[in-house]
Amino acid sequence: MAAAAGGAAGERRIMCVGLVCLDIISVVEAFPAEDSDTRCLSQRWQRGGNASNSCTVLALLGAPCAFMGSLAPPGPPLSKCGAEWGGTPAPAGHRADPPRHSTGPSVFLPPASTLGAPPARRSRLPARPRRSGGGPQPALCPPLSFIAADFQRRGVDTAHVAWQPRGAVPCACCLVSAASGSRTIVLHDTNLPDVTARDFERVDLSRYRWIHFEARNAAEQGAMLERVERHNRAAPPERRVRTSVELEKPREELLPLMGRGQVVFISKDLARHFGYQSAPEALRGLRGHIQPGATLICAWAEEGADALGPDGQLVHSDAFPPETLVDTLGAGDTFNAAVIFALAEGRSLQDALTFGCRIAGRKCGIQGFDGIV
Ligand code: ADP
Ligand code: FRU
Question: Where is composition skewed (Basic residues) in this entry (predicted)?
């Protein structure tokens, strides 16, 4: 695996655990009416998913980072690729290129080193396609190779990707409105099993300084956090691993995770779900759910973000709106990553919050992530 961005060999990394998916993004002039038929201004593929986006941002900020999440096994032959995605199989011999607007590289078979976790790690995994005598290589399903190549180009360590024996790579159709910068996401994320506590046991915790969890499978992630807590109890202060948890989706079963991370990010969607109308209101109302000494953070789009530190003090940062709102897809993931980056560097909560809003504001002013630093 390529060395992670910006890191000296041996430097402890920041790991993000959660979703990676393919985002198929259409930039539209304005949000279309239901049952209409319009052209978009541009279209691109982007590696997405909260944890995966946060890794992109950490890498751009220069932090050595690692992604842990699930991917489907090396795909079927291209002729079956459409079937795997629930669509019509591509005709035999069809080379299913990424769309022409794709900004990513056209790589179909990631080098063996691109994604960690060789199939041998799980005996029930199908074998990775092999090179046969220098002949043509079998092509992988393009979404998987696109994701693999994109992790690699960002220098994100993927050694702990959990290869699942079944399921499809999650994929989202995203509409970004040029008129408002809003993003509307429809995600297909139904049948790929999540990373388990057992997968997480293989992580050598001494190599990480911070592990961030995007809340998805609470019971398993609770066990992963317990493992980190046990490690921390036995480790000297400078070898401890800091933890954070993001609760974005208002799903009841995820709530126990609020009581687990040292830093807890809650989304405005979750806050609204509980009836709160602002970030400070949500922090005051939900503070009882976090563990003593933890920090609770809530971002609120153009209103910036608020946080409640371990000392019970409320801190606030205004947003840094760009001249034009261009693309808010992944603004929250950018904010989380930038806050984690700053806190991991030892900066104060106020500084970290301001930095998070500044970087997230820049992200809202550009398509994608290139240009946030
Ligand atoms: P999400 O992408 O999860 O919906 P938010 O909308 O809460 O995340 O935004 C996260 C951060 O991104 C905010 O705290 C803010 O700093 C920045 N941000 C998002 N939308 C805007 C906006 N319209 N104007 C300025 N900053 C924004
Ligand atoms: C942005 C994002 C997208 C993805 C969706 C998943 O925050 O991670 O990249 O399609 O959310 O919910």
Answer: 121-131
Nearest CA to ligand 1 atom 24: 302
Name residues whose C-beta falls within 8 Å of residue 281's C-beta, 6 or more positions apart in sequence. Answer: 271
What amino acid is encoded at 82 in this protein?
G
Question: Taking a C-beta distance cutoff of 8 angstroms, is the pair 221, 241 a contact?
Answer: no
Q: Which of 182, 187, 357, 363 to mutate to test ligand 1, by most ligand atoms within 8 A of the CB atom? A: 357
Residues at CB less than 6 angstroms from ligand 2: 19, 21, 23, 48-50, 53, 172, 174, 185, 187, 329-330, 332-333
Predicted confidence (pLDDT) per residue in 107-147, tens digit: 233 333 445 443 433 323 233 433 334 445 445 678 999 99
Q: Is the ipTM of this complex over 0.90?
A: yes
User: For residues 235 and 346, what is the distance between their CA atoms, to the nearest angstrom?
Assistant: 19
- Mean pLDDT, rounded, for 194-204: 97
Contact 145, 96 (CB under 8 A): no
DSSP per-residue string spanning 1-18 = -PPPTT--TTPPEEEEES
